[in-house]
């Protein structure tokens, strides 16, 4: 697939994973490393970055114009996809995954590749737990829900006290940034921030490192090319967990 031009793909299946999250399966496989993303063009609406949940699918929560347009589509409709982009999760040895909400999506390829030993999965409520059964089939699964309807009653970060972080070579994390910031604080306190691998989401225009719209403070690292996965020690004392930028470049608080 040419990285500069979107390839037209046909949606072959739409899976309602939770009340707010759907997986869109398309008729082309993309050779990608776990954690890489693609730029998805929704004709007439926008082009946005989305993580691959498999070589031929994206898993999406309806949060804006592009995702709302996707949710209005049906099998047989066409979208554009270009990529893959980014570095993915460079894991080796034993891996702990921490996912919140739709953030479990870029972590799923790690699970299906047999690279996750323990997975801490969080959601607002039981019906919003994403990929729980698929994860349970391949890894040790621990669950937390904000309302206590499944697993631990509380935040997924609280489950970290139930595992020995020294047992893991890498801790792969994706979810709401406020959740990931809390995970990083735990790792930093335990002296192992460098073992954390965090998948960031930022506004992107090009996806190939040219436009600079996804550069992060203070180092100017580009989420599309230098990330989207960054080690925790790089994110300490950065904009991470504090603010991001919108399409105009203006800061908005996380």
Automatic annotation (TrEMBL):
Against SUPFAM superfamilies, the record matches this protein to: Ferredoxin reductase-like, C-terminal NADP-linked domain, Riboflavin synthase domain-like
Q: Does the keyword Metal-binding apply?
A: yes
Q: Which cofactor does it need?
A: [2Fe-2S] cluster
Q: Which keywords accompany this UniProt record?
A: 2Fe-2S, Electron transport, FAD, Flavoprotein, Iron, Iron-sulfur, Metal-binding, Transport
- Which residues belong to any copy of the FAD-binding FR-type domain? 4-91
- Source organism's superkingdom? Archaea
Q: Which NCBIfam families match?
A: PRK00054.1-1
Write the protein's name.
Dihydroorotate dehydrogenase electron transfer subunit
Q: What organism is this sequence from?
A: Methanoculleus methanifontis
UniProt lineage? Archaea, Methanobacteriati, Methanobacteriota, Stenosarchaea group, Methanomicrobia
